[in-house]
Design brief:
- The protein has helices at 10-16, 102-105, 109-113, 132-149, 157-182, 184-202, 206-210, 215-221, 226-237, 241-257, 264-271, 276-287, 291-297; strands at 4-7, 26-30, 41-44, 47-52, 59-61, 64-66, 72-76, 81-84, 96-100, 128-129.
- By secondary structure, it is α+β, with helices and mostly antiparallel strands.
- It folds into 2 domains: 4-182, Jelly Rolls; 194-297, Arc Repressor Mutant, subunit A (Orthogonal Bundle).
- Strands 1-3-8-5-6 form a 5-stranded mixed sheet.
- InterPro entries: Homeodomain-like_sf (IPR009057), HTH_AraC (IPR018060), Tscrpt_reg_AraC-type_HTH (IPR020449).
């Protein structure tokens, strides 16, 4: 699995599975009709969504592996690596796949806003698990796209296909919101761990060595992708993860400012700021007073 192959076109994606290409920029595949494929890792230049059936072959995303036990949607964006792990030389894909080239949506509303669908940046372990009813909604969207692909391309084809893909992705936003709600108790535990992580961070020498804690650093320490972590914090607290971290920074700073044995510059460097003026600016934005004014008034 060390070898990585590029998936550069819809035609190549279809050819690997022995299926016909009906449109150069988009395809919907019933994977049960695909030929067995070799378990290589792939670097995608396409947007690919897999609807994986229960008990299919384990799939890797980046360097992580996930053994599917439920019907699951996995979202892959251009520039991401994915592949299949299997002991045999080939494996039989199952489920469904939707793949489209970025050129399909370029210049459209979806093209301008596709980065808003943050689940394209989720890790494999954060894939979307769907109910049977949700699965039917997904398949209806896929079937509408397939309907367009089965007919000659005309001036309406692109608009209808792109709008259906956007409808599908909007449904996935709803499904992910449901998944966040049903996992609320797990997410609250993560928030507790996040708070503990920040406390231990500022009680150590990490700020001087690593600087201020970033969203990416905290997500990594909690074994989450930055996108999923950000969504989780936002849904649970109403704040972005960055805002949450900054609030913590200010709480710590308020305590440290009272230590008159240290200059404000020393405190700034101790907390991980590269420049004292950045510390002063952030403090004043949040508190309404400069660190020096806060110290004198209190």
């Amino acid at each position: 699995m060390d070898k990585i192959k590029k998936v550069e076109s819809v035609a190549q994606f279809n050819a690997q599975r022995g299926q016909q290409t009906l449109h150069p920029l988009v395809t919907v595949l019933d994977q049960s009709k695909s030929s067995p494929i070799h378990p290589f890792r792939h670097l995608s230049e396409l947007y690919i969504i897999f609807l994986k059936d229960a008990h299919c072959s384990p799939l890797t995303y980046g360097r992580n592996q996930y053994d599917y036990q439920n019907e699951t949607l996995l979202f892959i964006a251009p520039g991401q690596v994915f592949g299949f792990e299997e002991g045999e030389e080939t494996l039989q894909p199952n489920g469904w796949a939707l793949a489209f080239h970025p050129d399909l949506i370029r210049g459209t509303g979806l093209g301008r806003h596709i980065k808003d669908y943050t689940f394209f940046g989720y890790d494999i372990s954060e894939a979307l698990h769907i109910s049977e009813r949700e699965r039917q909604v997904v398949l209806e969207c896929f079937q509408k796209i397939q309907y367009e692909l089965d007919h000659p391309i005309d001036k309406h084809s692109r608009t209808l296909i792109v709008s259906t893909i956007e409808l599908f992705l909007n449904y996935c936003v709803r499904f992910y919101d449901r998944q966040f709600i049903t996992r609320e108790h797990l997410h609250k535990d993560i928030l507790v761990r996040f708070e503990d992580l920040l406390d231990s961070y500022f009680d150590s020498d990490k700020p001087q060595n690593l600087g201020l804690p970033s969203v990416g650093y905290c997500a990594d320490q909690l074994n989450l992708s930055a996108n999923y972590f950000g969504e989780l914090v936002k849904k649970e607290t109403g704040k972005s993860a960055q805002d949450y971290i900054q609030t913590k920074v200010i709480e710590v700073a308020k305590e440290k400012v009272f230590d008159v044995s240290k200059s404000l510059s020393e405190i700034a460097y101790e907390m991980g700021f590269k420049y004292p003026q950045h510390f002063t600016r952030l403090f004043k934005q949040h508190v309404g007073q400069s660190p020096n004014e806060y110290r004198l008034l209190n």
